[in-house]
């Protein structure tokens, strides 16, 4: 009984020991499983407790603008540059990349497995109007998908009911795709870590256009004086360190390498 | 059916191995919802009782408003509280966003109208019964409220439990204002949402069964503690 | 209460409910001692009359003037309702309630509770939930609860209406005892026998009007008005 009370009391008390910071990251980053690996190591190496808010890219950027987090880690270069331009972050620091793949029903009715390019694959899907699930949430993944459609001059707004914009995170979208037996653009890491694959299979990969760059953006303390500058710097230097490089490059899911470290030191 | 069974098995596994994470988020769920319940009751019980015994001009309007507030969608409450507590919002300086306190605030707003309304209904009946006697005995407003609350405690307890049930099962608002941060603001419902989103249904179901068991346990405990059931007609 | 001194004076008191006159105009004086029976058939306005005196019924016009300070009026009065209101507590707690309201000490309250439980014959049932008593027991409890704070004035609204002969006798004994200890009693009833047994003076009500008022022997043995005569002969039921 005393033990129970002690535990309850300790929950109310604030831990003043570890330095804390709030980092907004995308669902695809979390779903890859990499954050579960890195966070404890970061705590051990630097004494920094990184509190992750796992949200879509859009919300991560808004949290950064509002100053509700100390830094963000996202994968949407164009949006990041606007973010920096508007003065919310002093700069963006590239950390690592993974790639997007197209998964779909094993039967592959659009035969994208034999497509040459990502754009070709998507075109085939659009032609036969095969069921397709889109993130639909202004995330990095979503923006990449839209970019592909516009490069072949197609407007998703004009697509029929075969195109399902779910407005959800990577995992939830994959769930829907699995349930519908639909095609979906996803990052490799989330796909490998996804536990409900059902009848879905990885059908298309390898096109360089599907390159997915992650960057770290600390929130500008001139805009939001309350941010934890110390912690920002600490985390950034860890993320670009040799230690991080080894861990990130060595991280595998199902035997596959998922991320490639590419930070400049 | 397979997945439901897998969920039950997973729930057992988590409990029997005294899974540390499960213990932590369960405790946090209880802490947040219990705190919200207590604070909500401090407002709702006297207010609901007062509303039952007072006659004033806007009484009907107040009651109607209270009943309407019960239908406030929790996720909308979450969004509004978030905007208020955000650094760019009016109360940003308090730094409460993404803390258990923010979650408690949101839940208090959600369950107070419910408890107040249920209190009002129960107290209205009791007041009709006690009305003549309490007036004859020259009681003050405070004495009336205390007498009604004490004698009507069984009905009020049921109302409070309804509020607790609503709080502990809530996910939309606390996801928004809490952020579902691991080791900080993650509770059973938000963890279930997260695991479901990852496609890990067994774990999500396991957590779900733990949540159900928890709600039942609290219900049980409160009734036993107050011994109201044992006293029969009370 | 000092005999002969005016206790309360009513002048042209009217009670209207939804523009309908249900009592009045009533003008009378009540003296400081005795046991007044408010007599009349059902629907005569006895309950309203008692409530007006006790101050829990609003009057539409007229005045009610007590001989004591305004502040102490309600505090020195107790009221026993026609259907006794039982708190959802034990007999003991019901008896203790009026004294608890006044912030009395627990030990003192206990003393009084035990004394009065004895007086009303409910000593064995002190720990029973009051809602589980019989009709007669509830009425006795209500009476005990009314008397426990030693009121100067006790109002009763047909306390024996739903009781058997034995309970009625027990309650009448209690009332007479309380009256002789100095409690002024004003009681409504339609029971003639009870009136004869208890009253020192009578107020006769019919259709919201006071038709006669005076010492018990006068009203009950030689009524003046035709209405009172008819009632005493048993000709008026409702």
Describe the structure.
The complex is a heterotrimer of chains A (265), B (234) and C (238). Chain A is 41% helix and 24% strand. By secondary structure, chain A is an alpha/beta fold. Chain A has two domains: 13-97 and 212-261, D-Maltodextrin-Binding Protein, domain 2 (3-Layer(aba) Sandwich), CATH 3.40.190; 99-210, Periplasmic binding protein-like II (D-Maltodextrin-Binding Protein, domain 2, 3-Layer(aba) Sandwich). In chain A, the strands form two sheets. In chain A, strands 1, 2, 3, 4, 5, 6, 7, 8, 9 and 12 form a ten-stranded mixed beta sheet that branches. In chain A, strands 10-11 form a two-stranded antiparallel ribbon. Chain A is globular and about 55 Å long. The relative contact order of chain A is 0.20. The mean pLDDT of chain A is 89. Chain B is an all-alpha fold and 234 residues long. Chain B contains ten helices and no strands. Chain B has helices spanning 2-16, 20-53, 59-69, 74-85, 100-136, 141-151, 153-168, 172-178, 188-197, 201-226. The longest helix of chain B is centred in the middle third of the chain and has 37 residues, at 100-136. Chain C has one domain: P-loop containing nucleotide triphosphate hydrolases (Rossmann fold), CATH 3.40.50.300. Helix content of chain C is 37%, strand content 26%. Chain C contains nine helices and nine strands.
How would you concisely characterize the structure shown here?
The complex is a heterotrimer of chains A (265), B (234) and C (238). Chain A is an alpha/beta fold. Chain A is built from eleven helices and twelve strands.
In N-to-C order, the SSE pattern of chain B is HHHHHHHHHH
Q: Low-confidence parts of chain A, pLDDT < 50 over ≥5 residues?
A: none
Helicity level of chain A: 40-55%
| Average pLDDT, all residues of chain B | 89
Overall, the morphology of chain B is globular
CATH class of chain B: Mainly Alpha
Rounded to the nearest angstrom, the radius of gyration of chain B is 20 Å
CATH architecture of the largest domain in chain A: 3-Layer(aba) Sandwich
What's the CATH H-level superfamily name of chain B? MetI-like
The dominant shape of chain A is globular
Number of strands of chain B: 0
CATH architecture label of chain B: Orthogonal Bundle
Largest interface: A-B, 32 and 24 residues
What gyration radius of chain A follows from the Cα positions, in whole Å? 20 Å
Biggest pleated sheet of chain A: 10 strands, mixed
Q: Specify the CATH class of the largest domain in chain A.
A: Alpha Beta
CATH-defined fold name of the largest domain in chain A: D-Maltodextrin-Binding Protein, domain 2
Task: State the secondary-structure class of chain A.
Answer: alpha/beta
* Oligomeric form: heterotrimer
Total number of helical segments of chain B?
10
Number of domains of chain B: 1
């Amino acid at each position: 009984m005393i033990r129970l009370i002690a535990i309850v009391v300790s929950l109310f008390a604030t831990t003043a020991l570890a330095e804390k910071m709030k980092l907004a990251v995308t669902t695809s980053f979390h779903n890859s499983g990499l954050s579960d690996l890195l966070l404890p190591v970061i705590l051990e190496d630097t004494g920094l407790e990184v509190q992750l808010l796992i949200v879509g890219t859009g919300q991560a950027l808004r949290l950064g603008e509002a100053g509700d987090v100390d830094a963000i880690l996202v994968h949407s270069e164009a949006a990041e540059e606007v973010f920096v331009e508007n003065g919310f972050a002093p700069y963006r620091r590239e950390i690592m990349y993974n790639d997007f793949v197209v998964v779909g029903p094993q039967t592959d009715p659009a035969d994208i497995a034999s497509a040459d390019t990502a754009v070709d694959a998507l075109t085939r899907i659009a032609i036969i109007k095969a069921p397709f699930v889109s993130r639909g949430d202004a995330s990095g993944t979503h923006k990449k998908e839209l970019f592909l459609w516009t490069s072949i001059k197609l407007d998703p707004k004009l697509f029929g009911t075969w195109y399902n914009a779910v407005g959800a995170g990577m995992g939830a979208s994959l769930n829907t795709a699995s349930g519908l037996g639909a095609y979906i653009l996803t990052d490799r890491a989330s796909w490998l870590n996804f536990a409900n694959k059902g009848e879905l299979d990885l059908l298309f990969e390898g096109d360089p256009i599907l390159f997915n760059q992650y960057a770290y953006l600390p929130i500008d303390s001139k805009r939001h004086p309350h941010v934890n500058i110390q912690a920002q710097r600490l985390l950034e230097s860890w993320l670009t360190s040799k230690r991080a490089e080894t861990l990130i490059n060595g991280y595998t899911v199902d035997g596959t390498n998922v991320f490639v470290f590419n930070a400049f030191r | 059916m397979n997945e439901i069974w897998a969920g039950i098995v997973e729930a057992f596994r988590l409990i029997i191995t005294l899974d540390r994470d499960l213990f932590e988020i369960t405790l946090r769920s209880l802490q947040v919802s219990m705190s919200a319940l207590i604070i909500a009751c401090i407002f709702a019980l006297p207010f609901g009782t007062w509303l039952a015994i007072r006659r004033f001009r806007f009484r009907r309007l107040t009651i109607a408003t209270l009943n309407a507030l019960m239908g406030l969608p929790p996720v909308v409450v979450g969004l509004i509280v978030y905007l208020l507590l955000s650094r760019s919002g009016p109360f940003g300086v308090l730094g409460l966003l993404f803390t258990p306190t923010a979650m408690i605030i949101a839940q208090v707003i959600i369950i107070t109208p419910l408890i107040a309304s249920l209190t009002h209904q129960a107290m209205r009946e009791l007041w009709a019964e006690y009305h003549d006697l309490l007036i004859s005995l020259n009681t003050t407003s405070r004495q009336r409220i205390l007498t009604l609350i004490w004698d009507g405690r069984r009905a009020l307890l049921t109302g409070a439990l309804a509020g607790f049930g609503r709080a502990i099962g809530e996910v939309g608002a606390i996801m928004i204002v809490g952020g579902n941060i691991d080791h900080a603001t993650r509770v059973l419902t938000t963890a279930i949402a997260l695991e479901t989103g990852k496609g890990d249904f067994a774990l999500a179901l396991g957590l779900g069964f733990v949540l159900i068991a928890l709600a039942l346990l609290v219900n049980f405990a409160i009734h036993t503690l107050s011994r109201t059931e044992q006293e029969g007609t009370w | 209460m000092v005999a002969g001194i005016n206790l309360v004076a009513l002048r042209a008191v009217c009670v209207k409910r939804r523009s309908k006159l249900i009592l009045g105009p009533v003008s009378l004086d009540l003296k400081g001692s005795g046991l007044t029976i408010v007599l009349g058939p059902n629907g005569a306005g006895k309950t309203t009359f008692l409530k007006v005196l006790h101050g829990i019924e609003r009057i539409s016009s007229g005045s009610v003037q007590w001989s004591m300070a305004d502040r102490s009026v309600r505090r020195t009065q107790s009221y026993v309702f026609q259907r006794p209101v039982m708190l959802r507590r034990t007999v003991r707690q019901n008896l203790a309630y009026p004294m608890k309201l006044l912030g009395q000490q627990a030990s003192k309250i206990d003393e009084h509770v035990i004394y009065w439980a004895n007086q009303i014959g409910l000593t064995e049932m002190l720990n029973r939930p009051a809602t589980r008593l019989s009709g007669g027991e509830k009425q006795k409890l209500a009476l005990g609860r009314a008397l426990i704070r030693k009121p100067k004035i006790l109002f009763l609204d047909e306390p024996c209406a739903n009781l058997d002969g034995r309970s009625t006798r027990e309650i009448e004994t209690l009332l007479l005892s309380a009256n002789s200890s100095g409690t002024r009693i004003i009681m409504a009833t339609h029971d003639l026998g009870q009136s004869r047994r208890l009253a020192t003076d009578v107020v006769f009500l019919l259709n919201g009007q006071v038709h006669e008022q005076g010492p018990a022997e006068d009203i009950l043995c030689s009524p003046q008005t035709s209405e009172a005569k008819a009632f005493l002969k048993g000709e008026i039921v409702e």
